[in-house]
UniProtKB/TrEMBL annotation:
UniProt KW ATP-binding keyword: yes
Domain of life where this protein originates: Eukaryota
Family: Belongs to the TRAFAC class myosin-kinesin ATPase superfamily. Myosin family.
Biological processes, Gene Ontology terms: actin filament organization
The protein's name: Myosin VB
The keyword Electron transport belongs to this UniProt entry's keyword annotation: no
Chain coiled-coil ranges: 1140-1259, 1314-1410
Species of the source: Oreochromis aureus
Stretches assigned to the Myosin N-terminal SH3-like domain: 9-61
Regions of compositional bias (Polar residues) in chain numbering: 1095-1115
Region (Actin-binding): 635-657
GO MF entries: actin filament binding; ATP binding; calmodulin binding; microfilament motor activity
């Protein structure tokens, strides 16, 4: 150390002892020289103090650390390591920063806050998962993550040892550690092992925890839980061991304490029906639960806790019957405590009343005999060598025996529950590794210490020894790794104290030996201890007592009272009572007390961990083990387990004894710190080299102490060595390691002082220079100002004199003008007075004359008016009398008429008059039905006549056949067939002409109808204009406000619904992925052990292949209605209620029509089946003809006929509705009926012509076959020599063939006639149903009119007029809507009919070509091929045709095998365009199966590819772009007007014609959302490791970040030990990665809106991860980090602007981290600063703001910490905010994605396909 540096100089701060606060801060006011007896100090309150100093009695006080080191995360980072520094650091962190966790080397110190903190959520677990321990703020999750990481990396078992005194928070800490493992290492299967592990906690708390004076939920037992993991480090099971249950609490509780929670929970739920048999009441009524005199705990509901306990039992698989048995045992213990034992007169015996209710309940609940239990509770058996005696017990002995029995029952039940919990948590899978969590009591010392405290402190001695050896080992490893000289560090070894307790003839051996003595006593045992161990340094005998002893433990001296040691060690229970319980009729009770061998497992290299079963044997057995022996054995087993693992230590500290939130009692804290070994860790660390720096960090921190010449060397290590050798003269004060520099205690403080002095001198020099510069600037400014003032002063004086001259001249002028004006005003005033006097005099005289004249004139007017008034009054009186008489007469006459009208209105004749038109219509309809039924009968008769004529024709043909046999020439028959063919052709031409004529008539009729509709539309437009004018006035006022409010609310609801829907999709995909993983794991476990796995070709989503079929039903009417709503506007449509009523009605009609169509299809299928069965009965030649006939019928009739009939049925229904609704318009109805009849006749004629064509084609086929056979026969006749017999023999089969052909022709004619008849009958049925529907509509119309009439009669005349006008307007509106619908339907049907006619024309041409081919062709296969050939359309473009068998090849080529690089130089999203062109062709040929199959295969193949490449961003982006483009194509070419507005005319021609793919659009939309979520997941997985390093750790602004001393955790071996250290990323690397994402998405043609949403989600991830790490890391909460962070965010914003992504709202997601950076930079002192912070930080919650202020750490002494008062001020100002309690941001939050419609401008027919795609099997169409 430097020679001129002495630590105890002026202004040095020190710690001095204090009786209240343990240590008090002071400052040296005078330099101390060696040998001075007094040290001059000044306390913090400015009180002077003379501190005596002596070489032995009073050493120099401890030095304080610099303020920059106060509040460090790790105590080992302090420069001065001693008790006051540790205590002060913990106090500052706990009270000022509310930080309850602090590292102390390898130990995590946890202080109980007595308040629920929001630092244990799942987002905090995610933040700590995968992080190095020193990178984040201290936390129990960091320790758990360290253990989990070391287990996975080193493949070594781990242990977390949680210790502390009662109420320090041990159980909660262990619970949170297990929650971390359950979350991070969740089970891979659905066994929910992690839930079971967590479920064991409420059970163990219920049966093992109780309220004490120190803790409301104190664990009264120790436990060690082992969580097992498989090779993939997923939880597979767990095991629990328990230690030293406090059984005495069952029968005794101190004041203000309670028994175990389960007793009070059961009593609180005693009123439940299932617990009535337990006979329980309130806990106050039982002795064992009322000894503490307080059965309640504030804030605890025992009944609710009992529900949780039962749920945990159920989750762990314990049956309901077993639970009830457990509760019976617990209730029996309560009843046993209330059994009253009465003393007999002699005092040596006792008895129990036979009527004791509690004893009866006890025996009933346990299923034992009452008399035996009553007897043996008051008696005991004494056995000698010869005989056995039964001896009575006194009341005290019986009471002790009863209490011992109760304790024994509870202990056995406790062990049974633990054993079954372990059974439910165990697994058959092999355990690879485990992490153990030890929750054990810490060192205890009370006023009265007994056997329990002795065992607890013995266990802590063993744990402390293990802890010391582990710390020593770590220190040695660190020194050896850094290759520095190792010197032995002396530490206190407590092995002598352990030997005193457990060695041969130690305290435990002497206790067991005394227990074996028949009459051994506690006093005798104490005397043996005095005699044996009085010479031990760790054993003392109290001066004033002979029944106690003192043991000097590592933590403190403890005096133990010997009373009760022997009894508690024996744990005596009488055998007779146990035998009664063994004979219980309940199996569980008998199992509890069955004998089990208590075998201690042998020690081995591999520790087999299992539950500790401390089941005592019968008390009379010779080798029964005592409690002390069992505890020693279990403790040795525990130590073996811990020594075989890597331990991690958590020391829980209780800050005060009053359970006050964030209250720190220094004396209690120091006591616990000494007891738990934290100070020993500090001492060991301080004995070596506690302060350690890496060379780069040391260089960055202390380079200000270097000279310019020292910086010439590039080797930083050499520079650091040279600097230290210059600054610190003593070489023993530091050591140079491989990567670090090691310092003795105090050396860092010395370097910090030098650094501070350097900065201080630099500041003085800077201040001197700046002040001189400021003074020079000020002098120049003053001189310049003086010159300027003089110049301006002289100018001002001159200007003032000139102004005086001007004012003098102006005053003279003003005086002259004023005098003139004054004289003129006087003259004018006099003249005005004279004129006024004259005017008043003249007026007075004139008014007098006028008054006299007016008086005479008024008298005459009065007389005239009085006379007129009298005459008018007389006239009015006469007129009123006449009117009164007339009114009376008219009222009487009107009453008579009204009465007569009412009578007529009630009569039926009136209704008949009203409904005359309706009756006529009904009569006409009935007449029409009768005519149709007559026609049906006539047609039946005609059918019978035709059948008879067919029979006669058959006979005639047979006769002709006989005649033909006699003829020898064959040519005549051929000529007759040719003539018949010519005749048929003529008839066909006539049919064509007739059809053309019908088309012309149809066109003319339609033109007339169109004209009529135009007239109605003009009338409708007039009514609409009036109606719109009225609606416009109503809507004008509310439209603007309502639109804005509704749009905002709808948008918010839409976003919420979209987010909820996408979350469901995300959950679905997650479950889907989990299902696939489970299947793979099952297959892996079954067939392939190890890490290899087979490739799976199975579909990942088998259920997705069954998509709904493509809907081909007609939905035109609904679409038209929706289109009408769009044309009218939402507001207008909303005002027109009738329009929506019409839409609803139309929906119901469409549903009925769909059902009718379904029935029709089923009937036609049945008819086709019957025809097929009939055709199979014919001969092979007939099958050939039937095949041709069926092919023609399938090609030409099925599809076209179905559509035409559906259209005609729809038209009939619409016409019927129009006829019913417009019955008053006879002319319009006649036009409709005419149109209907014409369409019906056209349809019938068309069907007839089709059947004739079929017959002709069948006959042509038959004739061709017959001609071919005749030619073969003729050729045979010419080759034979004996011609005449051969000819005779060959003619006979030819004639049979002809007869058969003729017969089959007749059969075909018969079939056709039957089909026509069935068609007509179906038509008649349809018409009959239409008539019934029309009748129902008429009835309904009549009822509506009657209701309206009755309602209108009840209104006043004015209201009747208004009501009638409204009804008329509504009727006309509905009529206009119906007419418009009808016109649109007719136009649509016209287009369809035209299309069908074109198809018929083409088919007629094909038929003529087939006939020509039949005449010229002679081969049968060619004829068949010609009949079944498919037509080839050449009028369409932009389609790709493929064969059905090539579908798998298409999917494989375009989806499975394609790579983004294969299509990088082509049009983006080319696979999507190709797939859509194939879909278009399938739609064009009307093949719904092909469309469905292709879309289903495409979707499943995309899912397979994405699953295979689930971590490939490029492939995921590629298929997101193609899937969204395919979705846009299906919308763009769907034919819906909403998607056709931006199409070109050519694109509109390419719209889908036959299928509505809306359902598949929804499936593709869901698939796009899933791909988007996978893309976000992949991108976040890539950038997440880069975020913290790039945003918080890298130096974007060089030399800005400061470095502070680091503690043990920053140098622990758990961090990456590579030479280069952990991978670090810069901001440029992060921006480069974002740029790569953006370029990939743009190259793939992804929509810019989707790219913006992806970037927004990634920026949210960057913001959330950065802010969460900032909130959990104290080392980055500084001014320099805020500057770096603000610069980094500005760079990200610049990147957004440079890539045109700023409008994507991505920048808004960075607002919280921007405000956090500003918060780190702003001033934080005054109230104005607090107000500014509250105004600035709107995106941060109050918890986040307070957390950042608490974590704010100055890196230099010139910065100041944020005061507690300032933080409280901030909290008070932010109280009004309703911020959520969550501290961290949700990194898994996803914004709802929206895929906006984006049509393509490309023309499908112009696309070019590269040859590299290998799609030659596709044909352009």
């Amino acid at each position: 150390m430097s020679g001129d540096y002495y630590p105890y100089s002026k202004y040095t701060r020190v710690w001095i002892p204090d009786p209240e606060d343990v240590w008090k801060a002071a400052e040296i006011v005078k330099d101390y020289k060696e040998g001075d007896p007094v040290l001059q100090l000044k306390l913090e309150d400015e009180t002077p103090l003379q501190y005596p100093v002596g070489p032995k009695s009073n050493p120099l006080p401890f030095l304080r650390n610099p303020d920059i080191l106060v509040g460090e995360n790790d105590l080992t980072a302090l420069s001065y390591l001693h008790e006051p520094a540790v205590l002060h650091n913990l106090r500052v962190r706990f009270l000022e920063s509310n930080a309850i966790y602090t590292y102390c080397g390898i130990v995590l110190v946890a202080i109980n806050p007595y308040e629920q903190l929001q630092i244990y959520g799942e987002e905090v677990i995610n933040a700590y998962s995968g992080q190095n321990m020193g990178d984040m703020d201290p936390h129990i999750f960091a320790v758990a993550e360290e253990a989990y990481k070391q287990m996975a990396r080193d493949e070594k078992n781990q242990s977390i040892i949680v210790s502390g005194e009662s109420g320090a928070g041990k159980t909660v800490s262990a619970k949170y550690a297990m929650r971390f493992f359950a979350t991070v290492g969740g089970s891979a299967s659905d066994t929910n092992v992690e839930d079971k592990v967590l479920a064991s906690s409420p059970i163990m708390e219920a049966i093992g925890n109780a309220k004490t004076t120190r803790n409301d939920n104190s664990s009264r037992f120790g436990k060690y839980i082992q969580i097992g993991f498989n090779r993939h480090y997923h939880i597979i099971g767990a095991n629990m061991r328990t230690y030293l249950l406090e059984k005495s609490r069952v029968v005794f509780q101190a004041e203000d304490e309670r028994n175990y929670h389960i007793f009070y929970q059961l009593c609180a739920s005693a009123s439940l029906p299932e617990f009535r048999d337990l006979a329980l009441t309130s806990a106050e009524d039982f002795t064992y639960t009322s000894l503490g005199e307080n059965i309640f705990i504030e804030g605890v509901n025992d009944a609710e806790d009992f529900k949780k306990t039962r749920e945990a039992f159920t989750l762990l698989g314990i049956k309901e019957s077993s639970q009830n048995s457990i509760f019976k045992v617990i209730a029996s213990i309560l009843h046993l405590g209330n059994v009253e034992i009465c003393s007999d007169r002699d005092g040596e015996s006792c008895h129990i009343s036979r009527k004791d209710v509690h004893l009866q309940h006890f025996c009933k609940l346990l299923g034992v005999e009452l008399q035996q239990m009553e007897h043996w509770l008051c008696h005991r058996k004494l056995a000698t060598t010869s005989e056995t005696y039964v001896k009575t017990m006194s009341t005290k002995q019986a009471t002790n025996a009863r209490d011992a029995l109760a304790k024994h029952i509870y202990a056995r039940m406790f062990d049974w529950i633990v054993e079954h919990i372990n059974l439910s948590l165990q697994t058959s899978i092999k355990q690879h590794s485990f992490i153990g969590v030890l929750d054990i009591y810490g060192f205890e010392t009370f006023e009265v210490n007994s056997f329990e405290q002795f065992c607890i402190n013995y266990a802590n001695e063993k744990l402390q020894q293990q802890f010391n050896s582990h710390v020593f080992k770590l220190e040695q490893e660190e020194y050896m790794k850094e290759q520095i000289p190792w010197t032995l560090i002396d530490f206190a070894d407590n092995q002598p104290c352990i030997d005193l307790i457990e060695a041969r003839l130690g305290i435990l051996d002497l206790l067991d030996e005394e227990c074996k003595v028949p009459k051994g006593t506690d006093q005798n045992w104490a005397q043996k201890l005095y005699n044996k161990h009085s010479s031990s340094v760790h054993f003392q005998k109290p001066r004033m007592s002979n029944i106690s002893f003192i043991i000097i433990h590592f933590a403190d001296k403890v005096e133990y009272q010997c009373d009760g040691f022997l009894e508690k060690n024996r744990d005596t229970v009488y055998e007779e009572q146990i035998n009664i319980l063994k004979a219980s009729q309940f199996q569980l009770v008998a199992d509890l007390f069955s004998d089990k061998d208590d075998v201690v497992p042998a020690k081995s290299a591999r520790v087999n961990v299992r539950a500790l079963k401390t089941v005592p044997k019968a008390p009379n057995k010779e080798h029964r083990k005592t409690v002390g022996h069992q505890f020693r054995t279990s403790l040795h087993l525990l130590m073996d387990t811990l020594n075989a693992t890597t331990p991690h230590y958590v020391r829980c500290i209780k800050p005060n004894d009053f359970k006050e939130a964030f209250s720190f009692d220094s004396r209690r804290a120091v006591q616990q710190l000494r007891a738990c070994g934290v100070l020993e860790t500090i001492r060991i660390s301080a004995a070596g080299y506690p302060s350690r720096w890496t060379y780069p960090d040391f260089f960055n921190r202390y380079r200000v102490l270097m000279k310019k010449s020292d910086m010439t060397t590039a080797d930083k290590k050499l520079v650091c060595k040279n600097l230290l050798e210059t600054l610190i003269k003593e070489p023993d004060m530091f050591q140079f390691g491989k990567t670090k520099i090691f310092f003795r205690a105090g050396q860092v403080a010395y370097l910090e002082k030098l650094r501070t002095d350097k900065f201080r001198s630099a500041c003085i020099k800077i201040q001197k220079t700046v002040r001189g510069w400021l003074q020079r600037i000020r002098y120049r400014k003053i001189r310049k100002m003086a010159i300027t003032l003089q110049r301006y002063g002289r100018g001002y004086m001159a200007r003032r004199y000139a102004e005086f001259l001007r004012q003098t001249r102006a005053a003279i002028i003003c005086q002259k003008q004023y005098r003139m004006v004054r004289e003129r005003r006087e003259f004018l005033r006099v003249r005005r007075a004279v004129v006024t006097i004259q005017a008043y005099a003249k007026g007075m005289f004139t008014r007098r004359i006028y008054q006299e004249f007016l008086l005479h004139h008024k008298a005459m007017i009065i007389q005239k008016n009085v006379r007129g008034w009298m005459q008018r009054k007389k006239f009015r009186r006469a007129r009123n009398a006449a009117i009164t008489i007339q009114c009376a007469f008219r009222r009487m006459h009107a009453k008579r008429q009204l009465k007569q009208l009412k009578i007529e209105a009630r009569s039926a004749e009136h209704l008949k008059k009203l409904n005359t038109g309706m009756e006529n219509k009904i009569v006409q309809l009935q007449r029409k039905m009768d005519d149709q039924s007559k026609e049906l009968r006539t047609q039946n008769e005609q059918l019978q006549t035709v059948n008879t004529s067919l029979g006669s024709e058959v006979n005639k043909l047979q006769k002709q056949l006989e005649l033909l046999r006699s003829q020898q020439e064959d040519g005549g028959q051929v000529r007759s067939l040719e003539e018949e063919l010519e005749h048929l052709r003529k008839e066909l031409e006539e049919a064509h002409a007739l059809r053309n004529k019908m088309e012309e008539e149809h066109i003319n009729e339609k033109m007339d109808l169109t004209q009529r509709v135009d007239e109605l539309e003009r009338e409708n437009s007039l009514l609409k204009s009036e109606k719109e004018e009225m609606n416009r006035r109503i809507l004008q006022h509310s439209k603007s406000t309502e639109e804005e409010v509704s749009s905002m609310s709808l948008q918010s609801e839409l976003d919420k619904e979209r987010e909820r829907y996408q979350n469901l999709l995300k959950e679905f995909s997650r479950l889907e992925q989990r299902y696939d993983n489970l299947k793979e794991e099952m297959s892996l476990n079954k067939f392939q052990p190890g890490h290899r796995r087979n490739p799976s070709n199975q579909s990942s989503l088998e259920s997705d292949s069954n998509y709904p079929s493509v809907s081909t039903s007609e939905i035109g009417d609904t679409e038209d209605s929706i289109q009408l709503v769009d044309e009218m506007g939402i507001d207008k449509a909303a005002m027109d209620i009738s329009l929506f009523m019409k839409l609803q009605k139309r929906v119901r009609e469409l549903e009925q029509e769909r059902r009718k169509l379904q029935l029709t299809v089923e009937k036609m299928e049945e008819l086709a089946k019957r025809k097929g069965s009939e055709s199979r009965l014919s001969t092979s030649e007939q099958e050939t003809a039937d095949l041709a006939y069926n092919n023609l019928k399938r090609q030409e009739l099925e599809s076209e006929n179905k559509k035409l009939k559906n259209d005609l049925n729809e038209l009939r229904k619409t016409v019927a509705e129009r006829a019913s609704q417009n019955s008053s318009s006879n002319e319009l109805q006649d036009s409709y009926n005419l149109l209907l009849s014409q369409l019906k006749s056209a349809n019938e004629e068309l069907d007839a012509r089709k059947e004739e064509v079929l017959i002709l084609r069948t006959q042509i086929v038959s004739a061709a076959q017959l001609q071919e056979k005749n030619e073969n026969i003729l050729s045979l006749n010419t080759t034979e020599t004996d011609s005449s017999p051969v000819v005779n023999n060959s003619k006979e089969p030819v004639d049979k063939e002809e007869a058969l052909k003729a017969y089959h022709g007749l059969c075909e004619s018969k079939k056709l006639l039957e089909a026509q008849l069935q068609t007509q009958s179906r038509q008649h049925k349809d018409e009959l149903e239409a008539l019934h529907t029309q009748i129902e509509l008429l009835k309904g119309d009549i009822e509506d009119k009657q209701e309206k009439l009755s309602y209108m009669m009840s209104l006043s005349p004015e209201a009747q007029v208004e009501y009638s006008v409204q009804q008329e307007i509504t009727r006309l509106t509905n009529d206009n809507l119906d007419l418009k619908e009808l016109v649109e339907k007719l136009e649509k049907n016209e287009r369809k009919l035209k299309k069908q006619l074109k198809i018929y024309m083409k088919k007629v041409q094909e038929l003529e070509a087939a006939q020509a081919a039949a005449q010229s062709s002679r081969s049968k296969p060619e004829l068949i091929r010609q009949v079944t050939v498919q037509r080839k359309e050449k009028d369409f473009e932009g389609m790709l045709e493929y064969n059905k068998e090539d579908e798998a090849l298409l999917v494989k080529t375009l989806i499975n095998d394609i790579r983004p690089s294969n299509v990088s130089g082509t049009v983006p999203c080319l696979p999507a365009y190709i797939l859509f062109m194939c879909i278009r062709h399938a739609d064009y040929i009307n093949d719904d199966q092909k469309v469905e199959s292709l879309l289903t295969s495409t979707i499943n193949a995309i899912k397979k590819v994405l699953k295979k490449n689930n971590d490939d961003f490029e492939m995921t982006s590629f298929w997101l772009a193609n899937t969204s483009r395919l979705l846009h194509c299906l919308k763009q070419y769907s034919g819906e007007e909403a998607f056709m507005t931006q199409n070109t005319p050519k694109q509109n021609e390419h719209c889908l014609k036959n299928f509505d793919l809306a359902e598949y659009r929804q499936v593709l939309s869901d698939l796009s959302i899933q791909i988007y979520q996978q893309l976000i997941k992949v991108a976040e997985g890539i950038i997440q490791p880069m975020i913290v390093s790039a945003m918080l750790e890298s130096e974007s602004i060089p030399s800005l970040a400061g470095v502070k001393p680091m503690g043990y955790r920053n140098r622990s071996s758990s961090m990456d030990t590579d030479a280069d250290g952990p991978t670090s990323y810069t901001l440029q690397a992060l921006i480069k990665q974002l740029g790569q994402f953006n370029n990939i998405m743009r190259d793939h043609g992804l929509d810019p809106e989707i790219i913006g949403q992806v970037v927004r989600q990634l920026f949210h991830c960057i913001n959330a991860v950065t802010l969460n790490n900032l909130l959990l890391r104290k080392d980055v909460c500084s001014w320099s980090t805020g500057m770096q962070l603000r610069y980094n965010t500005s760079q990200l914003e610049e990147w957004l602007r440079g890539n045109n992504l700023y409008q994507s709202k991505a920048a808004a997601t960075l607002e919280p981290i921007i405000q956090a950076a500003q918060l780190l930079q702003v001033k934080k002192k005054t109230s104005q600063d607090a107000e500014a912070i509250c105004t600035l930080c709107t995106a941060l919650t109050m918890q986040q703001i307070v957390k950042i202020l608490n974590l704010y750490t100055p890196l230099n002494e010139f910065e100041e910490r944020v005061t507690v008062s300032f933080i409280r001020n901030i909290q008070n100002r932010l109280q009004e905010r309703n911020d959520p309690p969550q501290l961290l941001l949700d990194t898994k939050h996803t914004f709802p994605v929206l895929f906006p419609y984006s049509p393509s401008a490309l023309s499908l027919e112009m696309l070019h396909f590269p040859a590299s795609l290998n799609i030659d099997f596709l044909v352009r169409v």
